[in-house]
Design goal:
The complex is a heterodimer of chains A (323) and B (330).
Chain A lengths: L1 H28 L6 H5 L5 H10 L6 H13 L13 H36 L4 H15 L2 H15 L19 H38 L3 H8 L4 H29 L2 H6 L5 H10 L3 H29 L8
Chain B lengths: L4 E11 L5 E12 L4 E5 L6 H8 L8 E3 L4 E4 L2 E2 L5 H7 L4 E4 L3 H4 L6 H11 L5 H14 L5 H5 L8 H13 L5 E5 L7 H18 L2 E6 L2 H7 L2 E6 L2 E7 H6 L4 H8 L39 H5 L5 E4 L2 E3 L13
Parallel strand pairs in B: 3-9, 3-10, 7-8, 8-9
Antiparallel strand pairs in B: 1-2, 1-4, 1-5, 5-6, 10-11, 11-13, 12-13
Helix pairs in contact in B: 4-5, 4-7, 5-7, 7-8
Classes of the chains: A mainly alpha (323), B alpha/beta (330).
């Protein structure tokens, strides 16, 4: 187990290093510059721009910038944002909890709904329930995230007026509320963005889970379970304990996607998270923020895979001795 | 003596793509008496596994269908008419089954112990600790050493022979009267095969089990069976006490099968085989189903299918030669 952890940690460092390098190169190669906006502004003097360029070390050769960025990163210094005039890490510290909350809620919807529906479908393939769910999941899976988000806003925010559609809390009323009121305010703001991400994820998960169950119920050991005189419910437990294995892998892959793929949802719902932060940073060529965000997502990919591996080791005894 | 298990006119069909129907088992009747071993012998595709699965109604329906005109009587009660609950009691209870591939027949992510105890608990011993004690007894019964440690292990940690022993222990959990063994040694090494066979005959003697042994291996049938039924194209081709069947086969198919057994004491350049291909279950030949492959066949064989014929009830063959022995080609 110790060797397994050490190997994973080493891999995490390597991946983070690689992603930081590639992102650094790509964003510098991209047309445009952090100072392009200021350059077009008639009220900003050429001296001021030159001063900024020196301050951000943008006047130095790119390999010098790269080495400086990386050595700082190794020391835990993620640099200063060009546009927000604050440490990148501070900005992440504000945005990350919001994104993690949204991702956790979305994952809950995704896997609770997806695994349940997919399993019920797989146990009775070809039934009316299966056919209806297959149509619904295929449709949901094909729909763009932002469109589903906008539709939910239209229905539950605009027409019915049941739920708030923007931000993390109500900026005007939040502070006046008691603890329960505050909790509800946060939960209410979370529902629509989490549903948007969660429903689309659930559609994919359900299709995976259905295929996994279909594969498992054809196996010999399911026939054995029936031959032993077990109830259909006990047979389903036999099937499920095997059918969760591919879904665990999917779960590991979903973690980073929810971290980075929430950009559109965070934009639709004005959710101050990592996705929006990164998106705005890309538009403004805020190099340290873009590189930092990409590195963070890379770490999330490694973490997601790690979580999936650990869960698989728990769920599948065959993988335990392999290490 | 009354049979313990009486199968009458059992027919099992499968709906195939393109509207075809495969009648894998076609009007089979069999008797299994208490304490005896009946070997059901046949080539792949002859319907012997489908027959075994039909006895416990383990055929997936659809696409499978067991004709309601058939009967599977256990102690006189027809299993095919039972509801799901009664069926669950008899599965793994009076009628237990073991399979060809012990490796894939055990759930890979559950411990040996939990798979045995859940069977014990499903058949009259709901108490968890008593079930565990019973599981330990069962493992010791099937010759597994260190049963305490084995209970906590997973199937992949056991050898193939050990896995089949676990399957047998599981099958014994409900104190069965009948054990259906579908090619129980085919997937195992030769030395392990013998050990498993010895175990089965030992258990049979000790527990008075009736065993329905399904196999393609005539040598195996000769070694352990009291009686043998040969299956061909979904039907019983010949049935007789083991010694009579092997010494005086009546059906040309049985004869051909016996010739195809490799013998260590004879030097042959080429192993004789049963000529031709086994027919498809979607289109059994008209007349005698074996006639396209039979070296004795004449017009009568092409025109009409014989019933099971014989001079006494112990030895029956589905062949017109029983009627007209003079027709037998030299």
């Amino acid at each position: 187990m110790a060797a397994f952890l050490a190997r994973r940690l080493g891999a995490a460092v390597l991946v983070a290093f690689g992603v930081a390098t590639i992102t650094f190169l790509l964003i510098h190669l991209a047309p445009g510059s952090p100072l392009a906006g200021s350059g077009e502004n008639p009220y900003v003097s050429a001296e001021a721009i030159a001063q900024m360029r020196r301050n951000f070390a943008l006047d130095r050769p790119i390999h010098i910038q790269y080495v400086r960025y990386l050595t700082n990163l190794l020391r835990g210094d993620w640099g200063l944002s060009f546009t927000m005039h604050r440490p990148v890490l501070d900005a992440f510290r504000d945005a990350l909890p919001n994104t993690l909350l949204l991702a956790a809620a979305a994952l809950l919807v995704d896997f609770l709904l997806g695994v349940t529906v997919g399993t019920l479908q797989g146990m009775r393939p070809g039934s009316r329930f299966d056919r209806v769910c297959s149509a619904v999941t295929l449709t949901l899976y094909s729909v763009p995230t932002f469109w589903l988000g906008l539709m939910l806003v239209l229905v539950f925010g605009q027409e019915l007026g049941w739920l708030p559609v923007s931000g993390v809390v109500d900026p005007a009323l939040y502070h006046a509320r008691d603890i329960l009121g505050k909790l509800w305010d946060r939960a209410a703001h979370l529902i629509l963005p989490a549903l948007t991400l969660g429903l689309i994820g659930a559609a994919a998960t359900a299709r995976y889970q259905r295929a996994a169950v279909l594969e498992v119920i054809r196996q010999d050991f399911i026939r054995t379970a029936r031959a032993k005189g077990l109830s259909e419910r006990a047979v389903a437990v036999h099937a499920l304990r095997n059918a969760v294995l591919p879904t665990i892998t999917l779960f590991g892959l979903s973690l980073p996607v929810l971290l980075s793929g929430a950009v559109l949802v965070e934009t639709v719902f004005a959710w101050p998270g990592m996705g929006r932060l990164a998106f705005e940073a890309i538009q403004r060529r805020d190099y340290p923020v873009v590189t930092g965000a990409a590195t963070l997502v890379a770490l999330a990919v490694v973490a997601g895979n790690f979580v999936a591996d650990v869960l698989t080791r728990i769920a599948d005894p065959r993988t335990r001795e392999a290490q | 003596m009354k049979p313990l298990l009486a199968v009458r006119d059992l027919t099992t069909e499968f709906a195939m793509p393109g509207g075809l129907v495969a009648r894998a088992v076609d009007g089979v009747s069999l008797d299994l008496y208490p304490g005896e071993t009946l070997a059901l012998v046949g080539e792949s595709g002859s319907g012997k596994t489908t027959l075994a699965l039909s006895l416990l109604r383990l055929i997936p329906e659809p696409p499978g269908r067991i004709d309601p005109a058939g009967r599977v009587e256990l102690d006189g009660a027809d299993i095919l008419r039972w509801d799901a609950k009664a069926l669950r009691r008899v599965r793994g209870g009076d009628l237990a089954m073991i399979f060809q591939e012990p490796g894939s027949s055990l759930n890979p992510v559950m411990t040996v112990g939990s798979q045995i105890t859940e069977t014990v608990r499903a058949h009259g011993q709901p108490d968890r600790r008593a079930a565990r004690r019973r599981a330990l007894e069962l493992l010791a019964d099937v010759g597994i050493s260190d049963p305490d440690r084995r209970l906590g292990q997973y199937p992949h940690q056991l050898s193939g022979g050990m896995q089949q022993r676990v399957m047998i222990a599981m099958a014994l959990a409900g104190n069965p009267k009948v054990l259906i063994a579908d090619e129980p040694t085919t997937a195992l090494d030769v030395t392990i095969q013998l050990q498993i066979l010895d175990l089965l005959s030992d258990l049979q003697r000790r527990l008075g089990l009736a065993v329905l042994l399904i196999t393609h291996d005539l040598g195996l049938a000769a070694r352990v069976a009291d009686r043998v039924a040969v299956m061909y194209a979904g039907r019983i081709a010949e049935s007789a006490p083991a010694a009579r069947l092997f010494d005086h086969p009546q059906h040309p198919y049985t004869e051909a099968l016996l010739h195809a057994v490799p013998r260590i004491d004879r030097d042959v350049a080429r192993l004789p085989v049963v000529p031709g291909q086994p027919p498809l279950a979607t289109q059994w030949p008209t007349g005698c189903r074996f006639h396209p492959r039979c070296r004795h066949a004449w017009e009568r064989c092409r025109g009409a299918e014989p019933s099971l014929l014989g001079t006494d009830q112990e030895h029956l063959a589905r062949c017109w030669l029983v009627d007209e022995p003079a027709r037998r080609a030299p």
